[in-house]
Amino acid sequence: HLKSISKILGYNFEECFELAYQEIKDRKGRWIDGTFVKEEDLA
């Protein structure tokens, strides 16, 4: 589905995926009941 959405919006899927990965790869946090909670929001 994400490939279809990116194509409709005129974006290259692989570039979008890489940009998103670079944005979130170093985030720290925990999974709580199936939801990722960032470390700074746990305090």
From TrEMBL:
Keywords: DNA-binding
Keyword check for DNA-binding: yes
Example of a GO MF term: DNA binding
Keyword DNA-binding: yes
Protein name: DNA-binding protein
